[in-house]
Design a protein that fits this description.
five-stranded antiparallel sheet; 614 residues; transferase; transmembrane; alpha+beta; kinase; six-stranded antiparallel sheet; 17 helices; elongated
Length: 614
């Protein structure tokens, strides 16, 4: 693992703090400025469209007044009633309508410039067409065809704005304001149509004032999905995808991919003409100021980061350099070279640290000198005491040699056995042999892990001695499967539990209905040995006390008050010896019911035997 230096850590922390600060400030600034710019551009586009919408409605309302004047003029109404073949009445009323047209149009200069033509068409097929002081004659069939279209489209007494012209050459460059006209009597049915054609080129001067940048454009869609302006947009099919989006948006702003680029469209629907005035700009152009801010923020951030990192490097170096000098001096001190550091000119915390180091080196050198002298004196005293201690150990060894060793006990038991054979006493022979086997198993065996069969044999010898002592015969029920007799367990753990049962489970003596059963099983990687009896059991208070002591995981002391009477020493030591051999996860557990018996469980790991290769 690579070591982290203090300078690297300081530099890393400075880098993290600086980068996080720049990123957070830059990101928030960019996000806020971009959002403000987007809102500002959107608001600007909405204001431009609203202004164009207002001026357009103002112009159209002026033409509506002219249309109202024509539709309510008595000569126009009378013209609707002339006979189709009456040339005189046609001439008279045409002349009157012409004079009315000139007086009405020339009074308003703007109307004069923007007006293309005015025509009145009756159901009888006769028409009056006025084009700025000129009267025009059209093919009667063409006039009748346009009249039929106007009668179908124009509203009943209401203004209708139509993207059409009576003259094919003007198609797409004018917009027609049409209204149906009744006869002289207002109750009569519609007799004809008064239509005013307005030049889009003149009206477009108002729309062209909408400044939308190099890539922005402005267009108008009527309520049927036809493109009114500009003429190039009129070449698109009515009700195409863009027109449908405009009609569906109402007065809302939306984004749409137009001619391969993402654009923003701001739409405003005129309440007067039912036209949808739309301004469009590329999203890329809208975001250009935000991109400039982002680029500037990144450049300034990188420059600031470079300067900050340089300052961090200088600051870290001013701290690390004296610390490294202190570190090198301490390494020399570890080698026994008492090296002092120059502390002149340092009045900060590091200077105080260097002063403390120099003071520590001075005191350590004095202390080591004293310890060295004391060590020499101690070694001299130990040499003088060494001979006395050696004489004492020799005396203790001679004393130990005089003690009775296990071999003397074995020989003594063999001598007793020989006398028993001579005296023909099989009971003594059996008891002495069992006692000899128990003593040899307890003293001479150094293995901590032995087989279940060894422990059962030790229990059998114990039972032989016990039966001769008490004069009563008692059998233990061993229900261990033969396949488990070679499992490993801790030495001298089974016999102390059997002895504990005889001492405490049957305090009034062993009766014929009493039993002791030994069983074992392997399950889940564990090997368990069960010792169960139907004796007096353990009182709940005593059982809780024993379980608490088992949880303490320590050997019991014979001097502990009451342990010898309660059977605690054997249980505690068996439990702790199992843990000392196999680990803290194993040991002895007790289950008992007062008056009904006790069950002791020794839990050990399962023996893993190597597989034989065939």
């Amino acid at each position: 693992m690579k070591r982290k230096t203090l300078s690297g850590q300081i530099y890393t922390y400075f880098l993290i703090v600086i980068v996080l600060s720049l990123l957070s400030v830059g990101a928030v600034s960019y996000w806020q400025s971009s959002r403000a710019l987007d809102d500002q551009v959107k608001q600007y586009m909405e204001q431009m469209v609203d202004s164009a919408n207002y001026q357009t409605d103002s112009y159209l309302q002026a033409y509506e007044l002219l249309s109202n004047a024509f539709s309510s003029n008595s000569d126009v109404r009378a013209f609707m009633e002339i006979k189709p073949d009456d040339a005189y009445e046609y001439y008279v009323y045409s002349d009157k309508i012409k004079k009315f047209s000139e007086s009405s149009v020339q009074s308003v200069v703007t109307l004069y410039k923007q007006l293309n033509m005015i025509y009145v068409v009756g159901q009888h097929g006769r028409s009056f067409i006025y084009e700025n002081q000129n009267l025009l004659n059209f093919d009667p069939v063409l006039v009748q065809e346009q009249f039929d279209n106007l009668m179908k489209i124009a509203g009943d007494g209401k203004i209708a704005l139509l993207n059409m012209s009576i003259r094919p050459i003007d198609q797409g460059t004018v917009v027609t304001m049409a209204r149906k006209v009744r006869g002289p009597s207002y109750g009569d049915e519609n007799r004809g149509v008064v239509a005013i054609e307005i030049k889009l080129a003149e009206l477009a001067k108002t729309w062209d004032r909408v400044s939308l940048g190099k890539e922005g454009f402005f267009f108008i869609v009527d309520d049927t999905g036809n493109y009114i302006y500009p003429p190039s947009m009129g070449l698109r099919k009515p009700q195409d995808e863009l027109a449908s989006l405009v009609l569906a948006s109402g007065n809302q702003t939306f984004l749409h991919k137009y001619n391969g680029e993402e654009r923003m469209f701001v739409s405003r629907k005129s309440g007067y003409s039912d036209w949808n005035l739309v301004a469009s700009m590329p999203v890329e152009e809208l975001r250009r100021p935000a991109d400039t801010i982002r680029t500037t923020t990144i450049i300034v951030g990188l420059v600031t980061l470079a300067i900050a990192l340089w300052l961090a490097y200088r600051f870290g170096r001013s701290i690390i350099a004296p610390i490294r000098g202190l570190k090198d001096s301490m390494r020399e001190t570890e080698k026994g070279n008492w090296q002092y550091i120059d502390e002149i000119g340092r009045t900060d915390e590091i200077g105080g640290l260097i002063h403390s180091y120099n003071l520590m080196v001075t005191r350590l050198s004095d202390m080591i000198k004293r310890v060295y002298e004391a060590e020499l004196e101690q070694q001299k005293n130990q040499l003088e005491l060494g001979e006395t201690k050696l004489e004492r150990q020799r005396a203790e060894f001679q004393s130990l040699q005089l003690q009775i060793n296990p071999h003397f006990l074995y020989n003594t038991l063999e001598t007793i056995n020989c006398y028993a054979i001579v005296q023909d006493s099989s009971e003594i022979t059996e008891m002495v042999e069992a006692m000899a086997f128990m003593l040899r198993y307890s003293v001479q065996t150094n293995l901590e892990e032995i087989t279940v069969a060894n422990e059962l044999n030790h229990v059998r010898n114990y039972m032989i001695v016990l039966q001769h002592r008490t004069g009563k015969e008692f059998e233990i029920d061993v229900a261990i499967p033969p396949g488990l007799l070679l499992e490993k367990m801790v030495r001298l753990t089974l016999q102390p539990l059997i002895e504990n049962i005889f001492q405490h489970a049957f305090p009034d003596g062993v009766e014929p209905h009493h039993f002791i059963r030994i069983d074992a099983r392997k399950e889940g990687g564990l090997f368990q040995v069960f010792i169960e009896d139907n004796g007096t059991g353990i009182q709940p208070e005593r059982l809780a006390e024993l379980r608490t002591k088992l949880e303490e995981n320590r050997l019991a002391e014979p001097e502990e008050t009451g342990e010898s009477q309660g059977g605690g020493i054997g249980l505690m030591n068996v439990h702790r010896r199992i843990q000392m051999v196999f680990g803290e996860a194993y040991g002895l557990s007790i289950d008992s019911e007062w008056g009904r018996g006790t069950r002791l469980t020794m839990t050990m790991p399962e023996t893993v035997r190597p597989r034989l290769r065939g």
